[in-house]
Known about the structure:
Blueprint: E1 7-10, H1 43-68, H2 81-99, H3 104-108, H4 115-144, H5 157-186, E2 192-197, H6 201-213, E3 218-224, E4 234-235, E5 238-239, H7 244-253, E6 259-262, H8 269-279, E7 285-288, E8 301-302, E9 309-310, H9 319-339, H10 341-354, E10 360-366, E11 372-378, H11 403-411, H12 418-424, E12 428-430, E13 440-441, E14 444-445, H13 446-449, E15 462-464, H14 466-469, H15 479-494, H16 498-513
Parallel strand pairs: 2-3, 2-6, 6-7, 12-15
Antiparallel strand pairs: 1-7, 4-5, 8-9, 10-11, 13-14
Helix pairs in contact: 1-2, 1-5, 2-4, 4-5, 9-12, 10-11
Amino acid sequence: MSGTAMLQLHSTPKRRLEPAFSGKTHEPRPLPLNRSRLIPRDPNLGGVLLAICDISVVLSSIAAVASVMTYVDAKLLSTNLPYFFVISLLSVFLGHAFAQSYKGDNLSRISKTTRVKFIVKPTILTGLAILFSCGVSTLLDHGILSVGESLSARDLIPEVCLVALASASVGIERAAIYGFLRRLQASGQLCTNVVLFGADTIGQRLMQVIRDDYADSVQVRGVFDDRVQRVPDQIHGIPVDGGIEHLIALVQNTPTIDKVLVALPMHAEARILHLLHRLQHLLVDVALVPELVGVRIDKQVIRGVHPPILSICRRPLSDIDILIKRCFDFTAALGGLILLAPIFAVAAIAMKIDSPGPIWFRQPRMGFNNNQFDVLKFRSMYVDCADIGARQQTKRNDARVTRVGAWLRRTSVDELPQLLNVLRGDMSLVGPRPHALGMQVGNHLCDEIVRGYAVRHRMKPGITGWAQVRGLRGAIDVPSALEARVQHDIYYIDNWSFFFDIQILILTVVELIRPRNAF
């Protein structure tokens, strides 16, 4: 669970049925567990199986095209087949790196995974990978190895058929798996069954987190505490069933229990050690819930360190991710400035004719790592009305905005000079939109309204962002609007991928065609 990391204390390498608990003293409450043991317990295993399915479909498409099209080009079975085999591996790599389609969370929480992410992205990536590989093999056959040999449309028939067949097959396969997983989750068969030990404050907060954010993927099958006199009789409708003996009885009687969550305070060392000693013989995973329930905590434990150390947070981008994003930003921004130079000239001339004053508007804003920088925009207001501190947000039909400025803002042309910010490295094409330093919502600064507001500064600000393409543009006049934008920014940071950036850029073009809340 991303919001509440668990420190893994011990896990079972293999699941098997335990004999039913034979004692008469402790009778565990019967629980309606509905899940077949044929369902893989490890979500990462599900990702591996999905990758195998994709590879099998692509290889089957290659075999089908090779068998049918041999009368077109007999070399397809010999010369080109090794290239086509690499296609499937390339498709898997692209799907994992860009679409994150083999990520375990996407399978265990399939109801939270959109069809675009699970079906459309892998289908497109498969088609692009095959198209690229076919192009390389065609060049090798007709361009490099056979100089002067002409390439006819007939020679491209196998490649075209392979691209179409493999893409369609992966799309159909993904759609079938998506529907199958949705049915499994609706029946509760993909849920992780957990029991909670500790019904005090930590356990209650954890139950609230599970109920609010993980109800589709985590089911609490029992709550226990060794100090029943000090805790409530129930938590969110689940009764506290007793102490350690009752917990052991339930786990032994119920082989479909996956994990025991220990929600005890860290200072209760004796209780924790006693509990772990009693649970260590059970074939069930045991995890320790940190007291910081509700705080953004990383999902990994630093390995190779004893005692194990829980990672609180990590950089959102690795070194290679930073390099990829920066190279793309610089190349695209430079190309954009060259292509959009005529629009720059028209906007500058129109501004000079409409109202006296400079072309550029510079405003200090908070950027990456809480460093200030000057964002560049085309001036859209009268010079004597410019609000550097942005204490008064622009409203619809704002009298401070010039006639040309209104058009610039409505079409978002006023943001184009930020391509220069991207070239300088202050901004990125995609990222959380930078807010002015003095911007207020309801007479309060942004960081006074949203707890963890500064998290959005862990990545470079962008010309466009996930919040903007989701319709969250324009003035922020109520705290809930600010909270929604920050939530979208944090989602982008937590789920960044190069393909995600491309998706946002495409959606930005759509937003420019049908602008919402732009004034």
